[in-house]
């Protein structure tokens, strides 16, 4: 049966709530994961991601961005806020360019030590071995002009690359996708030179003592930091994009999407920043609560609504009728919206877990209950196809100026 830890995966608050018990075992799990990596006789399974469905091969480049106008909100003694982002784009050719890993070794070890995958043995998966379908520094397809820019924000604790399936697919369809890591929120962020910064959220949550108002304040802070990160990335892109892709990105046509807390952040970003012309929320509650169905404590995006196109994709049981903050958004919005409840889906169905967890289960003999708790009953192929079509439909408006 699903554990309480699994059941808590439904919202950003839930992910924070699970971080505390997980944190107690972080050092032990990290040690075991690293030990397994070093033992030549040990075997860790390797996983594969599905190929994108668009007409273009995909290139990628990583950027280290420094916000010198902002102290790091999680470590105030740090005078600047540092972020890592990946930029995905349609490539002309990928010949001679290596496929990018989903996670580099330092980030992968951090993910193995602290993640949202209850009942999955962290030391049995080689997370650094998974390859994306994006090729490092492949040349831009020069026949593609003025690419719409789409920001991606992952769920709490998740690295930016845990949304690779949707990001690579959008890039293959002719979008410039910017995947953002939220440092000290994500399990681990690896910077140039191999420096790795780990999540501060378990310690932050422990510091609340579980008091409801303090937890709520931590949720507000988490969202505010994420939105500030995304706005900074938008500010930085004109000069930060390498010459390889700088002229291709059209920052007059920007969309945003994310899963869980990332979906919340994408919607709040559109509310706060007129540069964002449409946004998609993949199963993220829009209130500072610890359960999707808890009323009240709405964010300003739920209270005010939005006047631009939006998409809400929810797991089975999540809809405007059952999630109060979604109902408020729909009632208060004047912009066109689409809402879809994905039957058979779970909260993790809107991350790369949807395709990776079934592979892990087959290799390690995990029970059907473990798989269902993490990614529901929906077939991975169906889950991926639903999201690809919905996101392509929403962001296709950026090409046609159909944003009202």
TrEMBL record:
The keyword Lipid metabolism applies. One of its GO terms (biological process) is lipid catabolic process. Gene3D superfamilies: alpha/beta hydrolase. It comes from the Bacteria. Residues 1-24 form the signal peptide. Keywords: Hydrolase, Lipid degradation, Lipid metabolism, Signal. GO terms for molecular function: 1-alkyl-2-acetylglycerophosphocholine esterase activity. Pfam families: PAF-AH_p_II (PF03403). PANTHER family: PLATELET-ACTIVATING FACTOR ACETYLHYDROLASE (PTHR10272:SF0). This is Hydrolase. It comes from Streptomyces triticagri.
């Amino acid at each position: 049966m699903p554990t309480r830890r699994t059941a808590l995966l439904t919202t950003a608050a839930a992910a924070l709530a699970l971080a505390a018990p997980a944190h107690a075992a972080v050092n032990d799990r990290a040690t075991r994961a690293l030990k397994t990596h070093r033992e030549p006789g040990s075997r860790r399974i390797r996983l594969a991601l599905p190929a994108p469905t668009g007409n273009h091969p995909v290139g990628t480049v990583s950027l280290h961005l420094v916000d010198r106008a902002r102290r790091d909100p999680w470590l105030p003694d740090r005078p600047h806020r540092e972020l890592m982002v990946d930029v995905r784009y349609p490539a002309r050719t990928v010949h001679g360019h290596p496929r990018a890993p989903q996670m580099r070794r330092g980030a992968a070890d951090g993910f193995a030590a602290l993640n949202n995958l209850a009942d999955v043995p962290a030391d049995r998966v080689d997370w650094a071995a998974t390859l994306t379908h994006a090729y490092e520094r492949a040349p831009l397809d020069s026949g593609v002009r003025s690419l719409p820019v789409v920001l991606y924000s992952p769920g709490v604790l998740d690295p930016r690359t845990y949304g690779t399936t949707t990001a690579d697919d959008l890039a293959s369809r002719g979008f410039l996708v910017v995947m953002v890591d939220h440092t000290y929120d994500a399990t681990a962020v690896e910077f140039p030179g191999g420096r790795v910064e780990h999540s501060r959220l378990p310690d932050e949550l422990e510091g609340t003592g579980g008091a409801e108002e303090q937890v709520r304040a931590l949720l507000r802070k988490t969202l505010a930091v994420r939105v500030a990160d995304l706005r900074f990335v938008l500010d930085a892109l004109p000069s930060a994009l390498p010459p390889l892709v700088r002229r291709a990105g059209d920052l007059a046509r920007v969309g945003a999407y994310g899963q869980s807390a990332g979906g919340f952040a994408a919607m709040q970003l559109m509310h706060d920043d007129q540069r964002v012309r449409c946004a998609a929320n993949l199963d993220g509650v829009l209130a500072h609560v610890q359960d999707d169905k808890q009323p009240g404590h709405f964010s300003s995006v739920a209270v005010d609504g939005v006047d631009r196109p939006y998409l809400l994709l929810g797991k089975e049981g999540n809809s405007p009728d059952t999630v109060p903050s979604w109902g408020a958004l729909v009632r208060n919005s004047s912009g066109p919206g689409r809402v879809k409840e994905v039957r058979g889906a779970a909260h993790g169905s809107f991350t790369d877990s949807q395709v990776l967890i079934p592979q892990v289960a087959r290799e390690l003999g995990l029970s059907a209950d473990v798989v269902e708790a993490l990614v529901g009953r929906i077939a991975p192929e169906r889950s991926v196809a639903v999201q690809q079509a919905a996101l392509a439909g929403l962001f296709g408006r950026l090409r046609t100026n159909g944003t009202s």
